Amino acid sequence: QVQLVESGGGLVQAGGSLRLSCSASGRTVRRYSMGWFRQDPGKEREFVAAISWSYGNTDYADSAKGRFTISRDNANNTLHLQMNSLKPEDTAAYYCAAGRKPVLLTPSSADYWGQGTQVTVSS
Fold first, then answer.
1. DSSP string, 32-95
2. With contact defined as beta carbons under 8 Å apart, do 9 and 114 qualify?
3. How many CB atoms are located within 10 Å of the residue 68 CB?
């Protein structure tokens, strides 16, 4: 069992930055690939960024490339998402996910989810 708790969301103006964190607990959590997804009300949950457990390889949605950076601190079981140059369309609830697949690119590939943290970008 893996427990995930996100933090760092909030209200920011367009062009600003936020750093999301996800604290993970449970056995062998460092053996799980991890990722960030986001969801607007009435829309499907969508992939944002992922990082593998093995070599730390990263993947990003096209909307996140060049602006967001995913990283993990295995010593402290923490996942981060640095978000720069935020846009109003980045407004959503952001969810941390963990799973045993080599990489998490779709919501169905995740085994565990956090409760989400809201990010609101004003224009």
1. SEEEEEEE-TTS--EEEEEE-SSS--EEE-TTTTTTEEEEEETTTTEEEEEE-S--GGG-EEEE
2. no
3. 22
Amino acid type, 89: E
> 3-state class of 107 per DSSP?
helix
pLDDT, tens digit, 9 for 90 and up, residues 43-94:
999 999 999 987 889 999 999 999 999 999 988 899 999 999 999 999 999 9
The residues with which 72 forms a beta bridge, in sequence order, are: 79
DSSP-assigned letter for residue 100: S
Token pair belonging to 34: 């991890």
